[in-house]
């Protein structure tokens, strides 16, 4: 792969591509892609460039990224209630982080397009029958039958309309005054039964409340608090769709993916000579790159050279996901190797911490998630590098998918409200508590 070779939105087709579904009816796929391409984009290029500038600030330690949302969005959750809950928890976490870190927070949802999933196996066995795996609502159905799991190109068009509907409502909420839910009055801390912890969280909340009242009394309330910026992201996995969302923008003299503000490249699809890196090197959006135990620092440098030959600050965010206790044997070497190359460092404490209960339910432990955050922060501190963000799989609903937290979810309780179609998410209380704990760890002084 070379950054000097000619690039086109479809040049990735000449390279080996991982994790792509095989559609039986190519003509139907082409027709859907043509329809989607003819529709309006989801985002405006000015927003994309603005995000890139903000991310550059996160890289310099002047602001902080909160990226979060579902592992896999589902079409059925494209409704008022679910979107409102997701936005509410993101806003509340961002206020806690903003207060604790004393920095502006850049909010990026895994939302309005997070419909395609990479999988570690092509098939699974359900009730004795071997069927293709679920690859996300944009590709096939979660229902467990061979027919339902067949990739259906019409789902790409459905995903486009669900993304549009979701983003439209997010824009209405974030511009229309809903952001007042910043207000700690509407926060729910009932889950904290441990008294000293509860007192501590309540103290932080009341300090935030005071700060907001003080700011409001200074004026320009609507501008500052009634409306907030919120960006969208998803894993750029399904390349035919990403190609269809790509447009040449003459004002900026380049191509952009206008299906999301930023996209990330997953741990399974970042081969230097693969189709994904080829596609992503041609677009102007800021990009995330997942890095984990299998990332060789020399390869990551080479990928960054290809994706960001001009070394634009804010262009690349390296999202580390090693697993609790595993970052220490990999991350210091990567940080050392990356010196002088501008990247934003973000922490995904979710994807290296998959676990299974005795009864075979996929889960994650709150303490492992927190442990990886703590370990990664210490490594960066010792290396003198700046942590610019954090990345969670989470939801605003009271699901029971991850174990632990002050709400004390146990392995036995997981089945009570287990909703995810893919990886387990932090629920409302676990997410809010995580924000309190991360804020305390990262606070410049005691809060
Ligand atoms: C994800 O973020 O949903 C994901 C699949 O992560 P990773 O590529 O790090 O495994
Ligand atoms: Co996931």
- The name of the CATH superfamily reads Aldolase class I
Q: What number is the mean pLDDT?
A: 94
Report the biggest beta sheet as strand number plus sense, adding barrel if it closes. 8 strands, parallel, barrel
Q: Which small molecules are bound?
A: phosphoenolpyruvate, cobalt (II) ion
Q: Gyration radius, to the nearest Å?
A: 21 Å
Low-confidence stretches are: none
Helix content: 25-40%
Give the helices and strands as they follow along the chain. Answer: HHEHEEEHHHEHEEEHEHEHEEEHEH
**Termini, distance in Å?**
48 Å
Count all strands and give the number: 14
**Largest sheet, order of strands side by side?**
1-2-5-8-9-10-11-14
Please tell me about this protein's structure.
With 447 residues, the chain is of the alpha/beta class. It has a single domain (11-442), classed as Alpha-Beta Barrel (TIM Barrel). The protein is 37% helix and 14% strand. α8 (275-280) links the parallel β8 and β9. α1 (26-38) packs parallel to α4, α3 crosses α4 and α11 (366-383) packs parallel to α12 (428-442). The chain is globular, with a radius of gyration of 21 Å. Bound molecules: phosphoenolpyruvate (PEP) and cobalt (II) ion (CO). Phosphoenolpyruvate (PEP) is lined by residues 71, 118, 235, 266-268, 290, 321, 351.
Name the descriptors.
single chain, 447 residues, TIM Barrel, eight-stranded parallel β-barrel, two-stranded antiparallel sheet, 12 helices, 37% helix, 14% strand, globular, binds phosphoenolpyruvate, binds cobalt (II) ion
């Amino acid at each position: 792969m070379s950054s000097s070779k000619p690039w086109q939105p479809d040049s990735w087709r000449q390279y080996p591509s991982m994790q792509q579904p095989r559609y039986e009816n190519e003509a139907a796929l082409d027709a859907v892609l043509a329809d989607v391409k003819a529709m309006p984009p989801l985002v405006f290029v000015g927003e994309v460039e603005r995000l890139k500038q903000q991310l550059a600030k996160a890289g310099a330690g002047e602001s902080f990224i909160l990226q979060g949302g579902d592992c896999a969005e589902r079409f059925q959750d494209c409704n008022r209630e679910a979107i409102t809950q997701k936005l509410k928890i993101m806003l509340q976490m961002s206020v806690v982080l903003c207060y604790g870190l004393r920095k502006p927070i850049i909010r990026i949802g895994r939302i309005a397009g997070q419909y395609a999933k990479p999988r570690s196996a092509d098939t699974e066995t359900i009730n004795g029958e071997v069927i293709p795996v679920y690859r996300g609502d944009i590709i096939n159905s979660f229902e467990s039958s061979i027919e339902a799991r067949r990739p259906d190109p019409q789902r790409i068009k459905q995903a486009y309309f669900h993304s549009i509907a979701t983003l439209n409502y997010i824009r209405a909420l974030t511009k229309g005054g809903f952001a007042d839910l910043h207000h700690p009055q509407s926060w729910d801390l009932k889950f904290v039964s441990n008294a000293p912890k509860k007192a501590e969280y309540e103290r932080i909340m009341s300090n935030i409340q005071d700060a907001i009242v003080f700011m409001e009394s200074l004026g320009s309330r609507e501008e500052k608090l009634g409306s907030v910026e919120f960006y969208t992201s998803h894993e750029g996995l399904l390349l035919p769709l990403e190609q269809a969302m790509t447009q040449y923008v003459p004002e900026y003299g380049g191509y952009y993916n206008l299906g999301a503000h930023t996209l990330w490249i997953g741990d399974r699809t970042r081969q230097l000579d693969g189709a994904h890196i080829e596609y992503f090197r041609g677009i102007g959006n800021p990009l995330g790159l997942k890095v984990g135990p299998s990332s060789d620092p020399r390869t990551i440098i080479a990928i960054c050279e290809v994706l960001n030959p001009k070394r634009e600050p804010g262009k690349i965010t390296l999202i580390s996901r090693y697993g609790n206790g595993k970052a220490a044997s990999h991350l210091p070497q990567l940080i050392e190797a990356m010196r002088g190359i501008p990247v934003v460092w973000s922490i995904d404490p979710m994807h290296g911490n998959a676990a299974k209960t005795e009864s075979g339910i996929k889960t994650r432990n709150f303490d492992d998630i927190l442990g990886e955050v703590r370990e990664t922060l210490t490594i960066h501190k010792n290396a003198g590098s700046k942590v610019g963000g954090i990345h969670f799989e989470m939801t605003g609903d009271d699901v029971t998918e991850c174990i632990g937290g002050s709400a004390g979810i146990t392995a036995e309780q997981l089945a009570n409200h287990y909703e995810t179609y893919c990886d387990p998410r932090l629920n409302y209380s676990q997410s809010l508590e995580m924000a309190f704990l991360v804020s305390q760890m990262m606070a410049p002084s005691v809060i």
